[in-house]
Structures are given as C-alpha cells and as structure tokens.
Amino acid sequence: MLKSMMAAVINQWGSAETFEIVQRPIPELEADDVLIKVAFAGVNPADWKMRAGYLESALPNGAFPLVLGLDASGIVVATGENVVEFSEGDRVVSGTNQFTAGKPGSYAQYLVVNKQRVALIPSEMTLESAATIPIAGITAWQALFAADKGALKKGETRKILINGASGGVGSFAVQLAKWAGVDVATTCSGANLEYVRSLGADFLIDYKTQNISDEIAKWAPKSVDLIVDAISADSLTDPIALLKQGGKLVSIATLTDDGDIEASIAEAKERGATKILAYVDDSRFGKELQKLIDIVDAGGMWLPPTEPFELNDVARAHEKLEGGHVRGKLVLRVSAELH
C-alpha cells in the first residue's frame, strides 16, 4: 500500500498564490472509512474562503499544512473493516470529512472519508461530471426540500425565485425545483440566459438590465412562495417584499458577508415571512447524495458543465472562482488516468 500522495496544500491563510504542491502522507484508514483514489475534486466557494482564513474557527488547531477540498469523485482502493457497502474498484463520489473530523480534503491523489459520505455512481456517469454533485447538489437539495429550509414537496403548486441560477448551486436548484413540479423564476446575467433556460426555468430575469421586483410582479402578481438566494450578500434589494405572507427566504450562507443575520431574520418575521440562513446539514449526506445520483440516472436532471484545471493549476482555479460569475462548476483533474 502506498504511504504518500501528491497534494495541493496551504501553510498559511492568504491568496491563491499560497498553494504548494507537495508530498503528504496518506491518512490512516479507520474502521468505517473508505480510501478513494481521487479522479476529480470539486472547487467550491467555501474552498477559497477557507484558504483566505474566513473559516479558521471551524478548523482544528494546528491545521497546517492544510489540504482543501470538500467533494471528489474517484475509485475505491481500500475499505475499513466495518465497510461492506463499497468494494475495491467501485466508482464513487463523495464529500470529505474536512469539517466533521478535520481530515485532509480532496485536493490530493487520495482521500480517506467516512462511508456515510460516499455514494456509488452509474457506469454511464463520468467521474468529471460526478465531482460536481456533492456540495453544490446537496446545498440546493436541502435549500428546497429540507423541513427546516424550503420544505417543498413534490407535486405542490408553488412559484419560487432562484437568485443566481447559473452557478453550481443554482444549476442544481433550478432543475430540482422543476423535477418537483414547481414554477421557477430565475435571475442571472444576460450572458447566461440561454444556459439557465436550458435548465428548465419558466421565467428569466437579467438582473443587469431588468428590475427584479417589477419582473416578479408581472410573473407572480400574488408574489412568490419561496426564494432560494444562492448569492446572498444583499444582491436582492428587498427580497421579503417579493414573498407572500408566510413565504420563506432561504439564503445560502456566504460565510463572508451575510450581514446582520439576527436583525434580518427578525425583520422578516415582523413582515410575516421567514428568513433562513442555510448551511449544509451533514446528517444524511450519503443518502441525499445517492438520491441526487438516482434523479440524474432516471433522467430527471443533468449535471452542470465543468471547467477542469490540473491539480498544479489550483491557484488559477481559485482566482477564477473568487472572481465570481462562474457558469456551472470548476473541478481539479487530480488523476488523469481515471475516467
């Protein structure tokens, strides 16, 4: 068994230039763990915020050298003694245990992760596409359907707004909302209108050239039931005004500029609405991941386009992500020989 791996690490908080490609030991495999040879690692907004030091308090002391990365696809190469769900050679996709157990992330040739964060992928799904699913897909799924967030139920008659529909979370949220049968309005830039239309959106708003409130009033004269804000940070001028009485605003936590959360939640309540700042709940990660894969496999959703970067080009991937306006999902190609 190999004892070391190549990994992209940071040794201090800072800019994308802080990354170094180094040799690191492969983490020890515990009884409930799966060892995955990483094909592709997803690149998420939380990654650059972690790199910049915004999430320092969420990580264990002495975290450096730190391997980032919250999701990955690849091939199982070993399993712990309690693992019967997965076998050597299985094609899988996974979250990581970076926050829950402080283990290295997926910007590395190998990933050790608890079996409850892993799901099998069908033979026709590419590893590159699969790497887009975990964080972005589960964030969207929970924002829409979790009982403590959007609480949508399939088949309900609802009108919802997804703010920021062309990014990773938005790409999943639009399609999942349409899979559930609700009517979906979206915001994006003009350059992404056709892409968002292809996701199934019913009503498209170019936030750069149109007034969102005016357009929603035309589309939903009685206002919308739910807003999923995948951008947050005051990108909507007065989102509560767009909601029906009793409506919900699910705001995906940006982890950097969410404003005065308590005050905004209290204001929403005073105005007859509910604001929820949404974080990913890890308690059903693997099961929800498998549900998303099953929806894709059944033709209910297609995976967002990817832009791959080599592992040693991780700094450029972070710079692009940090600049915003990414369509679909950025991924790191870690093991080029895996398909």
Count of separate structural domains: 2
Main structural class:
alpha/beta
Rg, Cα atoms, Å:
20 Å
Share in helix: 25-40%
List the helices and strands and how they pair.
Blueprint: E1 4-10, E2 20-25, E3 33-43, H1 45-51, E4 66-67, E5 71-79, E6 91-95, H2 98-101, E7 110-114, E8 118-120, H3 127-130, H4 134-145, E9 159-163, H5 168-180, E10 183-188, H6 193-198, E11 203-206, H7 212-219, E12 224-229, E13 243-252, H8 261-270, E14 274-278, H9 285-297, E15 306-310, H10 314-323, E16 329-333
Parallel strand pairs: 9-10, 9-12, 10-11, 12-13, 13-14, 15-16
Antiparallel strand pairs: 1-2, 1-4, 3-5, 3-7, 3-16, 5-6, 6-8
Task: Write structural notes for this entry.
By secondary structure, this protein is α/β, with parallel strands linked by helices. It has two domains: about 5-135 and about 305-335, Quinone Oxidoreductase, Chain A, domain 1, CATH 3.90.180; about 135-280, Rossmann fold, CATH 3.40.50.720. The protein has ten helices and 16 strands. Strands 3, 5, 6, 7, 8, 15 and 16 form a seven-stranded mixed beta sheet that branches. Strands 11-10-9-12-13-14 form a six-stranded parallel beta sheet, with helices on both faces. α4 crosses α9.
